[in-house]
């Protein structure tokens, strides 16, 4: 074992210095691989299309506790607005500044150093520790966690519990664990009517009437009033486009796009059916042709509070004195794929600056998070 593995800050710096903007890896997973190999992990790399992924396991016994996350990062944005080079891993006034510091190279460094310390004290845990690390979380997520899980499962691997290290705390370490996420559906609506003169509407069919009628029905419908662990689902129209430069022409076409964030009262399929039904009724009512293009980017999921959430809450409270609340707010994450394999929850750094210019975390927080993860391992192998 080297000093680096025990020092999460040095590890986080090493990771940030690899500018792994999705889909590039540029050596980020090599840092993880080297550190885990030194700790006695069996490490395997998986390349799917242009994406590098990694699965590593220490031990062969059950249960298998998995740390999951990603080494890819979002683009820097306007470089002139950064106060430091985003890939230099600058340490300033107690902060580590750089792209990925919060989301989530700092979290991965904390995973590794926690594991290193735990294994030093417990060389033969009662089960296995594994790492599931992808390079495709910030992108389309087509060749990352989803395929990696399929591949390792086909090889006989089984995860029993999984902790994702996304930055889940809004303001301070100990605020929040995510034990579920809402699903997300995008829909493009294209209405085609018949173009004509505004003074002769009987000779035309205005697609905007049908579109307004449909959108009004959709957004006035109450999807639900919230279910266990979740706020109500919501539908938001995000754009309406006609682009008609004339004042005296009924246009032929009108389009709109909407997004639905939904809880476990719905599925992508049930919402797709509902949207298609409403579109058919509107077509009959207005005589215009309506085409829907629907993409479900993630299903909703909920991990019942239980062993896993309690261990993470207890570990956090032991280390920080603060007991994080369970929440299902925010966007989607790769936990949406993991939930099909084992109970999963998410807990990581403070996410206030994720994806922003000058993304940063307190170095102290990375150290404390590493202690929390170590306490999670301690507690897990005592109870499981
Ligand atoms: Zn992330």
TrEMBL record:
Cofactor(s) this protein requires: Zn(2+); Co(2+)
Signal peptide start and end residues: none
EC number(s) on file: 3.5.1.18
Active site: residue positions: 72, 137
Cofactor: binding comment: Binds 2 Zn(2+) or Co(2+) ions per subunit.
Lineage: superkingdom: Bacteria
Listed pathway(s): Amino-acid biosynthesis; L-lysine biosynthesis via DAP pathway; LL-2,6-diaminopimelate from (S)-tetrahydrodipicolinate (succinylase route): step 3/3
InterPro entries according to UniProt: ArgE/DapE_CS, Bact_exopeptidase_dim_dom, DapE_proteobac, Peptidase_M20, Peptidase_M20_dimer, Peptidase_M20A
Classification via Pfam families: M20_dimer (PF07687), Peptidase_M20 (PF01546)
Domain spans labelled Peptidase M20 dimerisation: 179-281
Keyword annotations of the record: Amino-acid biosynthesis, Cobalt, Diaminopimelate biosynthesis, Hydrolase, Lysine biosynthesis, Metal-binding, Zinc
Role this protein plays: Catalyzes the hydrolysis of N-succinyl-L,L-diaminopimelic acid (SDAP), forming succinate and LL-2,6-diaminopimelate (DAP), an intermediate involved in the bacterial biosynthesis of lysine and meso-diaminopimelic acid, an essential component of bacterial cell walls.
Complexes and interactors: Homodimer.
Identification of the protein by name: Succinyl-diaminopimelate desuccinylase
Lineage: Bacteria, Pseudomonadati, Pseudomonadota, Alphaproteobacteria, Caulobacterales
């Amino acid at each position: 074992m080297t000093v680096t593995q025990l020092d999460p800050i040095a590890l986080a710096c090493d990771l940030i210095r690899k500018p792994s903007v999705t889909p590039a890896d540029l050596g980020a997973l090599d840092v993880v691989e080297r550190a885990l190999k030194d700790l006695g992990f069996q490490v395997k790399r998986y390349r799917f299309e242009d994406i590098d992924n990694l699965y590593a396991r220490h031990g062969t016994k059950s249960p298998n506790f998995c740390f999951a996350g990603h080494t890819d990062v979002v683009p820097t944005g306007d470089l002139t607005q950064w106060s430091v080079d985003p890939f230099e891993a600058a340490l300033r006034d107690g902060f580590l500044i750089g792209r990925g510091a919060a989301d989530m190279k700092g979290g991965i460094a904390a995973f590794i150093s926690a594991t290193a310390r735990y294994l030093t004290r417990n060389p033969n845990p009662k089960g296995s520790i594994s790492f599931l690390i992808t390079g495709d979380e910030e992108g389309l997520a087509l060749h990352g966690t989803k395929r990696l899980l399929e591949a390792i499962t086909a090889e006989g691997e089984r995860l029993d519990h999984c902790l994702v290290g996304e930055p889940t705390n809004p303001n301070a370490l100990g605020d929040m664990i995510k034990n579920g996420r809402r699903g997300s559906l995008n829909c493009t609506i294209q209405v085609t009517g018949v173009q004509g003169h505004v003074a002769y509407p009987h000779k035309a069919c205005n697609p905007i009437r049908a579109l307004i009628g449909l959108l009004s029905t959709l957004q006035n419908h109450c999807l639900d009033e919230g279910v266990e662990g979740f706020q109500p689902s919501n539908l938001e129209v995000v754009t309406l486009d006609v682009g008609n430069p004339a004042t005296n022409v009924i246009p032929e076409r009108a389009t709109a796009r909407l997004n639905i964030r939904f809880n476990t009262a719905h599925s992508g399929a049930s919402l797709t059916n509902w949207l298609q039904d409403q579109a058919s009724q509107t077509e009959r009512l207005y005589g215009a042709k309506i085409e829907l293009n629907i993409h479900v980017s993630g299903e909703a999921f909920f991990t019942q509070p239980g062993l896993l959430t309690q261990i993470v809450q207890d570990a956090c409270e032991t280390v920080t004195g603060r007991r994080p609340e369970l929440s299902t707010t925010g966007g989607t994450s790769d936990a949406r794929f993991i939930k099909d394999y084992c109970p999963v929850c998410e807990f990581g750094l403070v996410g206030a600056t994720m994806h922003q210019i000058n993304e940063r975390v307190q170095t102290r927080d990375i150290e404390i998070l590493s202690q929390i993860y170590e306490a999670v391992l301690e507690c897990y192998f005592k109870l499981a």
